[in-house]
Specification:
The protein has 13 helices and no strands. The chain has 339 residues and is an all-alpha fold.
Length: 339
Amino acid sequence: MKRLLPLFSRLASTLGLLLAVVVLNFLLIQMAPGDPVSVIVGEMGGASEELIARMRAEYGLDQPLHVQLGVYVWKILHGDFGFSYYFKEPVLSLILQRLPATILLVVTALAVAVLVGTLLGIFSARRPRGPLNYLVTLVSLAGYSAPVFWTGLMLVILFSSILPLFPVSGMADVRGAETFLGGVADVAHHLVLPAVTLASIYIAIYSRLSRATMLDVLGADYIRTARAKGLSERRVVYGHALRNALIPVVTMVGLQFGQLFAGAVLVETVFNWPGLGRLAFESILRRDYPTLLGILFFSAILVVVANILTDIAYGLVDPRIRTRKPAAARKPKATGAPR
């Protein structure tokens, strides 16, 4: 039972965090100027005061703020995320339709950023005064400085008029694929430019972080011992130093997972990618608050899941973290010394 206490404690803190996110998002949305009825009336070209009052009563907007909040939290607890004012569909259905596209984009971009950034950092650390180090530094600064939407627009211009190698819009060909593997290849072909755009800024971050960490690790005593034993440089770097150098990178991945979702809003808009980011952008423009609140709630869940996976990754990278017990839980060793 004692072993399950940390699990229950973490589950309780996670549920409390999600409830706080729901309440805070609702209050922040209510502070924004305008409401869905004003947008609908504007698109209708105007409406009478009686019709506006009836619409506000239908959406529950005429109720006091604390009543609206209580009704919303009660619905969330029962799995009801409301009805979209603009798309005329249940919010949960809308989100489940768009969620796979966003997860595919974010996970692919994250994998590309971690893999390419870490390799560039390792190569740069092994030759800290070589030309590759200066080239990686220059590329990292350029990638970190360029806004993600500017990078996306430049890639659209490059691959739409000069080098038509990749599609610049959508997730799949409108003609459809004849086979399942053909469909997978089509989606992967459309995924290249959005994933590279979203990963560009994070490649720079991971390359600089892994380079600095690898330089510290390569100067450690156990690395000098491994070299003194006659091990090859490849085995020293990839067999001994890389595991410890990856711990800060894993930490950064967990922290930046939420930022990737924020970047996905711009990337999905530029490349017309049918994910949650584009849905959030359309919901903001049309004051579709139930849809926007649902997207924010599911984004919070994904960030919580990412943090849990980060903790698991800690144990895989460094088993000492997985097996280490709190100081209070460790029993003192019997030394035989008089008390």
